[in-house]
Design a protein that fits this description.
125 residues; two-stranded antiparallel sheet; 4 strands
Length: 125
């Protein structure tokens, strides 16, 4: 996959998740921290880390070998949408239930899949 196409994939993921979030009037869960609301008492710190990771992933995708572009695009797309949520709303809208206690969104799934796929592909390089 060309770098340009990988950035388009990341954008499509971010736009899809953001569009779904825009349709939700009252989110079932608001995540002020990291996964599982960890560090939710420090939303400013979480926002800075989230923004920093998003910027780093943009650079990583631009410089990545072709084999890792899809997983990096999945991670970047999720990072963009969740970072935008933190910047605009102050929290991430989570709307997909995972059991009784945890919620996620398309971005979370995208990051998880990208990390898993990237790990597998990296180990086979």
């Amino acid at each position: 996959m060309k770098s340009r196409d990988a950035f388009l994939l990341a954008g499509a993921i971010a736009l899809t998740d953001s569009a779904v979030k825009a349709l939700i009037k009252e989110p079932p869960a608001k995540n002020y921290g990291f996964a599982g609301n960890r560090m939710d008492k420090y939303p400013g710190f979480v926002s800075c880390v989230s923004g920093g990771v998003t910027i780093l992933m943009s650079g990583a995708l631009a410089l990545s070998p072709e084999k890792l572009r899809v997983p990096f695009a999945l991670i970047l797309g999720g990072a963009i949408s969740n970072s935008a949520d933190r910047l605009i709303r102050g929290y991430v809208v989570d709307y997909i239930p995972f059991g009784k206690k945890y919620y996620g969104n398309i971005s979370d799934i995208s990051v998880f899949l990208g990390a898993g796929l990237g790990s597998i592909l990296y180990l086979t390089m």
